[in-house]
Amino acid sequence: MTDVSSALREAAQRLEGVSDTPRLDAELLMAQALGIERPALLLDPARYDVPADFDALIARRMAHEPVAYIVGYRDFWTIRLMVGPGMLIPRPDSETLIEAAVDYFGDAGPKRVLDLGCGPGTLLLAALAEWPEAHGLGIDESEKAADRAELNADDLGMDERARFRVGDWAAGLDGQFDLILCNPPYIADSEVLMPDVADHEPTGALFAGADGLDDYRRIIPDLPRLLAPGGLAILEIGHTQHILVRELAETAGFKVACRQDLGGRDRALLLTRA
Predict the structure, then answer these.
(1) N or C: which end of the chain has fewer CB within 10 A?
(2) pLDDT single digits (tens) 243-260
(3) Cα gap 94→188, rounded to integer Å
(4) Rounded to an integer, what distance in angstroms lies between the CA atom of residue 166 and that of residue 183?
(5) What is the pLDDT of residues 59-97, one digit of tens each?
């Protein structure tokens, strides 16, 4: 019988053609098949036998199904989010927005948080985990995503502090927020994506017109009325979009700073009242 360590090596080799992180994928899928957390697997792999359904999970990954959909969750910032087909999978690059917010607000934190295009609650719930006194609202056009966000809030014990609503960006929203977070679609319609993304994640959460800026043009004009004095709005951007999105924000009356991700790429624009 193949031992777990050998099975992981073989699976990682098979996954090299479909994944940038084949070993990590193999470990996460092995842990899922065993019903344990990955650290427990890495601590003592010899303790376990290879489960019967491990090959089936690898086959799903070989068909480019995202690991997050296979295991049903994605860890983001300090929280675990349940995810599934029909919603955008949280990315490590998006943690740049939370890092920027922590640097801006410190321990005091914002009181009211708005997450536009919240998906499964990614940015809002990460912010509420950081500041236990904060409350927030998440908006998404997908009822499936908003429902999953509510379940995630409940799982994290944040159901009394987080509300989610199906909506069209900021249309119909009233009131002001100290922190506004937004990871809109920003990929140009002509761009070719990896099969993991193109064949599985919702196109409405990815593509935004010929230049990838359609949703920024709709979102930014609403931000001046929604951002409280002294507040901060943070927009995730594609790494080539800094100047174009900055111009849209400055036209709306904002001062703009840029934050880079861990890869040194422009990733977030920080908007404050001029």
Answers:
(1) N
(2) 999 999 999 999 999 999
(3) 19
(4) 16
(5) 999 999 999 999 999 999 999 999 999 889 999 999 999
